Structure prediction request, 235 residues.
Amino acid sequence: MKKILFVLAILVFAQSAHAQLFSKERLANLEDFDKRFLTWGYFLGFNSYDFKIDYINQDTDANTDVLVEAQSGFNVGLVGDMRINEYVNLRLEPGLYYTQRNLTFPNFEEQRDFLREVKSTYIHVPLLIKLSTKRLNNIRPFIVGGVSTSLNLSSDQKNPDDNSSGKFRMTNGTSYYELGFGIDIYLYYFKFTPSVRGVFAMSDELVRDEDPNSPWTSNIDQLSTRGIFVNFTFQ
Prediction:
């Protein structure tokens, strides 16, 4: 699914760039838009969250890995953009992110034991630096990076039940770093921005089971989120 989203984003960028650079139309839309100190907008998009799992003991000859099946989710949020100079902007993009990951644990026979459906609802707040190129007709490519934090409303961190009762628990707060790219497209009435961004957690998110020899969590050294966002911003 991540590959499909990535290819779709590249196709959108390529088609827009071709239309703007090689079309006979050269009228500049929203000529003074980027001169504003503050601008506002909103975004809609898709996400694909995954887990990076490090193990305490990993036997390459045995079936010890937890399998992670990523599913696509969706995003919605607001954008606040502050102009630093002609090429640099500071952005705040708080949003609500819905996603699900399915974990399959080895050495179990029954689905109630080997399958954990990890449904997450995040309040995600990134602070980003946007570095743009010079505007080319009605498009402007950019790269973006920064840090973020999120509150997982579905974490079950304080739930006394654990995997022995069918509950997979995660911490309710996580910090990340983010990297991405996109292209601003200046239309007649508004600026439209498709972008792709990768997010990588900087902390362990696993809440371990009470049993220190738990077959679900005892061999996991660190479990951290990683994901891809494909957002479409309107300003």
Strands lie at 38-55, 67-83, 88-92, 95-104, 115-132, 139-152, 173-186, 191-201, 220-234. The chain has two helices and nine strands. Helices lie at 2-22, 111-114.
